Each structure stands twice: as C-alpha cells, then as structure tokens.
Amino acid sequence: MTLLAPPTVTMDGPSALRALARAFAHLGDFDRFVAGLQSALDRSAPFARTTLALDRGVAGEHFPAGTMSLPLGSGPRPLGHLQAVPGGENRQFGAEDLHLLAGLADFLSAALAASAQLEAAGQNRELLRFLLNQSPVGLAAFGADRSLLVANDLARRWLGEARAPLDDFEKGPGGFHLRAGGKLIFGEARRMPAPCEGIWMVALHDLTTEQARLLELMRRETYRALAQKGKFGFALIEGAGMADGVLRRLPDLRAALTLGETCGPYDAHRVGIVFSEVNGLALRARLRKLRAVFADVAGLRVGHSELGRNGANPEGLLEAALQVTAPYDEAVRSAVLVHDENPAVTDTFALLLGRDFKVVKSSQASRTRELLEQGMYEGFVAELESRNGPDGAELMSYARSKLPGIRPFFLTARHPLPDGGGETGKEDAVVFEKPFDVSAITQIVREKMAD
What we know:
Layout: H1 13-23, H2 30-41, E1 50-55, E2 68-74, E3 77-86, H3 95-132, E4 138-142, E5 148-151, H4 153-159, E6 174-180, E7 183-191, E8 200-206, H5 208-228, E9 232-238, H6 250-256, E10 261-265, E11 270-276, H7 280-290, E12 301-306, H8 314-323, E13 325-327, H9 328-332, E14 335-339, H10 343-353, E15 358-362, H11 365-374, E16 379-383, H12 392-402, E17 407-412, E18 430-433, H13 438-449
Parallel strand pairs: 14-15, 14-16, 16-17, 17-18
Antiparallel strand pairs: 1-3, 2-3, 4-5, 4-8, 6-7, 7-8, 9-11, 9-12, 10-11, 12-13
C-alpha cells in the first residue's frame, strides 16, 4: 500500500497572508502578534529596520509623512490602521512591499474583527450576569468542556471551586445537591439542544428555608399532640437517584395531600411528610395511597414513625424515620397475622394470602401478643377454640386495643357456629368454618382488607 503525500501549493507572500487571515480569524492577542511579526520582519532584507504600529483607535486618524498606512476593516466597519515606518536610510517601498503589507492588512483585519466580537461577547456576558443576578435562584452555563461560561453571583458563591457533576447526567436531565456555607443547595441540570449542543444550563435552589419550615412544623405538631394526647405521624420518602427523584414530585405530592398533612424537602434525596392526627394503620394506609405519586421513581424507600410507638419527642421520631427504612412497597404492604395452634393451618393461610399480603404466623398466644405489640397488621386471623391459653375472642380484643382499625377474621371448627356474641358478633367480624373454602377465603380477605 502506497501512501501519497498531500499536494504542495506554492503561493506568494500576500496570498499566504490572506490565507492566514481566513484560517486564523480566531486569534485574539494582537499586540503580541504584531511584536512577533516585527521580530520576524527584522530578519527580512526588504523590511530591515522597519517599524510596524497597530492603531486600533479609528477616531482622529493621522498619516504622517514618510510612513505607509493601510486602513483595517471588516466589511463597512473600520477597525483602525496599520503603519509601516522605515528606519535608517530612506528608501522607497517597492511593489512587492505593498502587496506584502496588503496581505498583512487583510490578516490583521480578520483578527481584529474576531477580537471585537470577543470583546462584545465579554460585554454581553457582563450584561447577562447582571440580568441573571435578578433571579432568586442560582443560574450557570457550562461549556462542552465543562468550563464555566457565565453564572450569577448566587451560583458562583454556591458552586465555589466545585463543578456541577454534569458527567453524571449525560443520559438525560439530572439533579444534584451540595452543601455550601451551611446551606442545602439543590441543582437541576439540562443539556441544551442544537445549535447549542454541548452547553449545560444549571439552576440552583436553596432548600434551607423549606427544610427548616418542615422540621419546625414537625416539632410544633409533635408537642401539640403530646399536650392534647392526640396522634401524630411522620414519614421520610427517598429515591435511589436524583435524576428523576422525589424532590421533583413535590408539586404532585402537595396536590395529593389532605387536610392536616404537609410535606417539604428534608434534603436533596428525601421529602418529609407531617401527618397531624394520623398514626398506626391509618398512617400506613395513607402511605399506600401516596405511593402513586412516586410511581416510576427507582429504588423508592420509606421510613415512618409515630408518637408513642417510636418516640416521645421530635428528635426521637425523626431518628426513627431515618434509621428504620425499607423499600417502599415492602414497608407499607398490608400485613396479616395468623394465629392457630395447628401450624398446618397457619401454613395454609400463608400460602393462600402470601401473594397479596405479608403473612406472619404464630401458634403460641404469648408470641401472638408480642407480635401485636411490636408490629403493624391490617388483619388478624384468630382461632376461636383454643386448647391451651386464651381463645380467639380474647386475643382479638387485645389486637383491637393495640391496633385500632385492625380487620378481624375468626377460624372455627364448631358446628353450629357461635351465637354471635362478643368479638365474633361485631359488624366487621368474619368467621371462616373449617374445612375452608379456599377461593372464598382469598376473595373475602382481599375485599375486607381494601383500604
């Protein structure tokens, strides 16, 4: 295989300079360029001891005798003039000299035009910064090389020496957070489409005030509930990432809340919800309904706490919500506690209900009481007839005292059925006869457990 060298084009000095003018119109340091050109021309016989001067002030142009002056311009726009002053003994400029200087003038005109554009751009950036400073949020633009192009004062102060993590968001819109001067700053990054492709726009918002408002409301509602012996619940919801995270769902979440419920940012990963006069099973039911707000948030988790069960002051409730977190669907999934002295019965119910509910089994009354004290169960299945210990009606009464609102289900092998007194006679109670109708159990429990 033979590699061919590119063709060589021979051109005179003026043509070469004009080509340079087209190729290097981006240059900006023209004083240094003129100094370098002067140094090069000092080694050229026709220009020995000739001084070049670049005058960019077009007002009051003067053309001293004995010098050659060439106007510089870009289209109809004057940019200054170039003067060549011969040194030493006087000599006449030749035609070849004029062509060389004409080419040089073309080159400098193109360079000066680019310089003027750069200066205008700099002025425009200052004007843009002034306008951006009127915004209550931090705004910044980054180039394709991640260098800062322009930013208002808020963004400069919050970003400091750090750069926005734009590399994390190459695949689409993204969010990030940072701590700056004790403030919680949340950022949203957007990549610009063509013709500004590669430019990133970043908006920064100070969440500190909203975070403080949420925590103050939580504190106030906790002490109100303590004073009035009322109910109070709190939840923290977080997502795995921020590109499409929970903070972006705050408007939808606020729209879904009811009277006595308030939400706000806890940090850039989590939102907090204050539930006044709500706790226990009602709190879990509300969280199940609010799950739809975060339908497509990846890695969604929740931690929730309530006054009394998880703490007696705001600090304890917040710590519980932070520490006891679990995947959202798992944490709020409706649970059924099944008590029967025969393990085969509890295994059967676990098999029947396990697809729809979290099923916890117990065959000992002491263990059942312990589970009712520590856990949260939307439904309780209790064996009516007990060979050892309390019967199902007594256990159901205990369950209602610990978890108001729990759905009661009884199991009985007695024929005929009990007379309907006590717990079994209550309007919401359901009694299943042994042997069981499998399809009926599944359907009835599902209907009764619906929120």
